[in-house]
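Request from the bench team (R.T.):
"We need a structural guess for the complex before ordering more coenzyme A. Sequence and SMILES attached. Just send the tokens back."

Command: build protein-coenzyme A structure.
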Amino acid sequence: MSCSLRPVGRAHRARLEQLTRGTGLFREEEVATAVELLDESLAGDDDYQFVGAFEADRLVGYACWGATPGTVATSDLYWIVVDHARQGGGIGSQLLTEVERQLMADGRRLVVVETSSRADYTPTRRFYETRGYTRTATIPGYYAPGDDLVIYTKDLSTGDLARAAP
Ligand SMILES: CC(C)(COP(=O)(O)OP(=O)(O)OC[C@H]1O[C@@H](n2cnc3c(N)ncnc32)[C@H](O)[C@@H]1OP(=O)(O)O)[C@@H](O)C(=O)NCCC(=O)NCCS
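Reply to R.T.: structure attached below.
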């Protein structure tokens, strides 16, 4: 069953924090950053855009993206998170497709995603790889010794949206 996609409001702030923490992947300072970006977006900062996936009125996932400063039409996907209990059910694909659709509508050209080389991010990397993202660069030891920064990119000019999971 697909979720409805709509903006994330102030009323969903605590739930967004809970979802982000509930993945078990992010450090507390990263969780705090996700909430800060929502606050900035709600305060009218266009650098950060959010879309939420909702089951009825319950937030079950979200994505956050924005224009990459100093580039010509490149955008960063900063966050994509799905409720731990609902992962693997197509919500992440639905969110990613919507982000790409909005980016294309805004004339954006390239999407950049940063993630980690850690073993617990293996399903996350597979998620991007099977949705048209290319592993473009690695910075060894970036996050911590043995924890590399892995950068994925996708060229939106081909017009291929991330496929939705069946
Ligand atoms: C990555 C994430 C957003 C994907 O959302 P999702 O709703 O689980 O993804 P979908 O159901 O649309 O797609 C599942 C695909 O993603 C991969 N995947 C990633 N995490 C998964 C998980 N926990 N369970 C099942 N599949 C997962 C699978 O390889 C699957 O691929 P397939 O469809 O080719 O079999 C979500 O799993 C998540 O929130 N993970 C934790 C947070 C995270 O890593 N965010 C990205 C930070 S860089």
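Two things stood out. The chain has four helices and seven strands. The beta strands are 4-6, 49-55, 58-67, 74-82, 110-116, 134-144, 147-155.
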